[in-house]
Sequence to fold (985 residues):
Amino acid sequence: MRTSLLQGWKVRTGLGVIGFFVLLALAGPWLTASVPGLDPRANDLTAIGLPPSAEHWLGTTQFGQDVLAQTIEGARGSLFVGFLSAVIGTALAILVGLPAGYFGGRTDAWLNFLSNLFIVMPVLPLILIVAGYMQGTGLWVIALIIGFFGWSGGARTIRAQAMSVSNRDFVLAMRTLGEPHRRLLFHEVLPHLTGWIAAMFLQGVIGGVMAEAGLAFLGISDSGAISWGTMIQAAQQQSAVLRGMWWWFVPPGLCIALVATAATLVNFGVDELANPKLRTVRQRTRRPRGSEAR
Amino acid sequence: MSTQTAHDTRPAARAASGDVLHVTGLTVEYGTDGDPVRACTDVTFTLRRGEILGVAGESGSGKSTLITALTRLQRPPAATTAGSIVFHPRDGGPAVDLVTASPRTLRALRWTSLSIVLQSAMDALNPVMRLGAQFADVLRTHDRTLDRKAAWARAAELLTTVGISGDRVRSYPHELSGGMRQRAGIALALACGPELVVMDEPTTAVDVVMQRQILAQVLRLRRTLGFAVVFVTHDLSLLLELADRIAIMYAGRIVELGTAQELYDAPRHPYTRGLRDSFPPLRAPLWRLTGIPGTPPDLRRPPSGCPFHPRCPQRFAGCDTHLPVLGEAGGAHLVACRLDDGDAAATGTERTTDGGDR
Amino acid sequence: MRRWGFLLRRLGFYAAAAAAAVVLNFLLPRLMPGDPSSAIVEELQRVSGQQVPPETLESIRAIFGDPDQNLGEQFVGYLGQLARFDLGVSVVNFPVPVSELVLQALPWTLLLVGSTTVLAFVLGTGLGVVAGWKAGSRLDSVLTPLTAFLSSVPYFWVALLALWVFGFVLGWFPLSGGYDANLAEGFNLPFLGSVLHYGALPAATIVFSAFGGWLLGMRNMTVTTVREDYVLLAQAKGLSRGRVILRYAARNAMLPSFTGFAMALGGVIGGALLTETVFSYPGIGYLLFESLNKRDYPMMQGVFLIVTLATLLANLLADSLYVVLDPRIREQG
Fold:
């Protein structure tokens, strides 16, 4: 399974792009510290609002900061929030979805009601309100809030899959034999859901990055932290659009879009693997006789 | 329910004159330009007006491919690469080759001349349309003068011919039982009075009692309406009762073609014999059931020579190098086996060493 | 009738969800650290430079917590406030009631988000059918990865780009607002024209960012549905191509899109609210943005309540439509 998954160009490209940004986030501090002129927080008053040049590859901000350095540093902030919120959201989704699917009945009815509730609620405004009360919060708290409110879709998937695994003969047989529920849940059912959980986690990371950007854009962020969202927000606040400083807000948004597209590509590949019907047949160049039934 | 056997209806079928379909050298390939897989190879047969031709074979024998090719419902990567399927209309109009017919010609022929019953009616009926609407759209497509009300009335009438109450036109497919759906599928196939109905294992999804009822209905309707049937199934014993003639398919080829009686009494191909002996007869003294050892060949790497030779209990030297062709061997009973090639016929089993090479 | 049973169950669920939203709205300020209600009162006094009138004080306490009452009493008082549609007064726009500001902004958002959501759904679903029907074709192999990218782009960033290109560089569209402030508001042609002119760019960016998601979902469903036997049979029936695609393939393929509506709607609305912010569009989203920036808690609470209830209502509508579209209704998960 693993080899065939990596054979598709979609999965390979997607994982490659994500890997690149993860490396960037990890190596960011070292990179910005060791390369001169690449300090994301340094304000160079002689270079204010400059377009891209040999000196500043992606130009500078209204505060004389290097956009490239900020974009690199922003990868760290954005991906940190993305990963932490995905960990929390995935954990909650498993905690709610797994027992719901496994036990069924009344447990399921309540847990499912809970996740449906969070599915139909507009989560972004909810997060905004909560974050709004916690003024001046750091990236940690923002990740916590995003994870705490962003588990419902995943719980729904986990529930459906847990239900189908729990109804397989081997689980039913072990249940009849009196195997403890905890053991069955975590040693028999959960391992079968690994693929789904991985896909969910990836979606969670992207959701987290997007939500952080949205929150930062609305001004809910740690004033000292740098993420792709805070960059766009700063650009918006300094009227970068009206000053024509496109180099300020284009790179961070493009990075978000790239990471999210990469995740979508990976999910495409996984979908096609799970559902062979989605695999498309390359059209034959030679026109076959009598095959234009569609 | 009719309890007559299929044999009694045959004279009626024979009475109809002329042929409705000539299939010649039909070859269907799947797949990439590099190494296509041949799912049907050089299939040739004639279908008489009002006749029931059974096509039997294991899964992977090319039966389903043959169906989509005959009805030209195949989708890429499947493609007909050789041969012709010539349809002769009842009204004496010009013959049409279904393989090369334009989509427009084809659309006009569909359902009025050529219809199909699929294996599972549950999947073949649109789940979000009422039964009547699924009849009405095809009726009104092929008869522009028919108004909505008349079309629905005709749908109710058609349902009653297969023993379903006419007020069921208002039902959705999921509101019908499995047997009802299957019969509705047959009624639908007959909606525009076709000359040829292709049936793809239409009774595998229902229980045995329902199966008998449906088959009896098919025979009765065939007698009154006179359409010809190509009936595809893996169940040879069912065909022995139902069909006038039977074609046995193996690895994409027809290996034997003869009347049901001939195939039942004197099968000539070892594969046909194996197939006959692996099903319990429905109305005959029991005999010992035997299976056919081995599995059907992988069509991506077909065996050399006769495709059946690796499993054949009567193979002899040369079977693995010489491909037998479907030849004339007494009357209309055709068989593709070297046992039948003249002198080899009688003593086939002994001739494993001294070679049949010519 | 089973479909009425289904609708009643859904109605029950949305009623429960609405109740939960109200409870949440009641609890949030009370769970937060500090004492929002005294903070708000202090802020009001600072802004207005005078003592807060007693009835305003009472209304704020009902919404944000009253140290003299227990939770039960507070909740009863809160429900009473809601029943009178009293959402408190805005701190920033003192002494204008929140309900008045929300009601002013709501039509703008309904117009913008409502029309663009429907448009994005129709456009995405329609193109998805085409891409799915011709899966593997050149159109599909270009359109599908492209939309995967488009649907991954943050709404507000697309809005910024659009504003920069079409508003700033090309100057085709105004840079902010919902209408020309020099014109008299009302049902006159120049004013309505300016509404269209100002709304075009925000609307286009929302449609642009939202339709990709629908397209991808519909494309994959169509690819799966096209292989169903009933589509094959429809072709065998000699029906016209359009009829096979619309009444057989697309008609069935679109059903999951409707069940997915609930999942997607929250995100779409959130994204649309951010878009309003970029364009300073006088809707709910901009109101929310302003209240967040200026710590206008009564406004935040009011906007959240209205947005939640509107979302639930839209979901209920989608569910009702689903009942009409699928005769085999059953409880979804």
Summary: The radius of gyration of chain B is 21 Å. The interface with chain C takes residues 71, 73, 76, 106-112, 115-116, 118-120, 123-129, 137-138, 141-142, 172, 174 of chain B (CB under 8 Å). Residues 68 and 97 of chain B are 15 Å apart (CA to CA). Residues 208-225 of chain B form the longest helix (18 residues).
